[in-house]
Design a protein that fits this description.
Helix content is about 0%, strand content about 60%. It is mainly beta and about 110 residues long. Strands 1, 3, 6, 7 and 9 form a five-stranded antiparallel β-sheet that branches. Strands 2-8-4-5 form a four-stranded antiparallel β-sheet, with no helix packed on it.
């Protein structure tokens, strides 16, 4: 099993669900950090979802309202601090404003 540390950065569009990270084939993704910085001049309403490839369903993981020029970490404190995703699973984000920047830190483990 080979390990690869990856960083994925996505700038969100308004009112469009973005696939911010998709686990590659024959791989497990261990997500250590999902943070969002609001680069917009207004408050952003954010919805973080996990799309399960096995059931073809997106499940809401968390919702957060983020003021301008503020960063929020979704995996911290009393919440889960690690997410384990399987091949084809996705991290998706929806924003009501343009320009929030999503940063995801992941350890990918090749299962072959």
């Amino acid at each position: 099993m080979a390990n690869a540390y990856k960083l994925h950065i996505t700038t969100l569009a308004a009112a469009t669900t973005a696939d911010c990270y998709t686990v590659p084939a024959a791989t497990v993704g261990i997500i250590k950090s999902i943070s969002v910085y609001n680069a917009n001049v207004g408050t952003a309403a954010l919805t973080l979802s996990i799309h399960d490839s096995g059931s073809s369903t997106a499940f809401i993981y968390d919702k957060h309202s983020l003021a301008t020029t503020i960063k929020h970490e979704f995996l911290k404190g009393d919440d889960s601090t690690v997410l384990v995703l399987e091949e084809g699973d996705k991290i998706q984000m929806l924003s009501d404003v343009v320009s929030p920047i999503v940063t995801i830190s992941v350890l990918q483990q090749d299962r072959t």
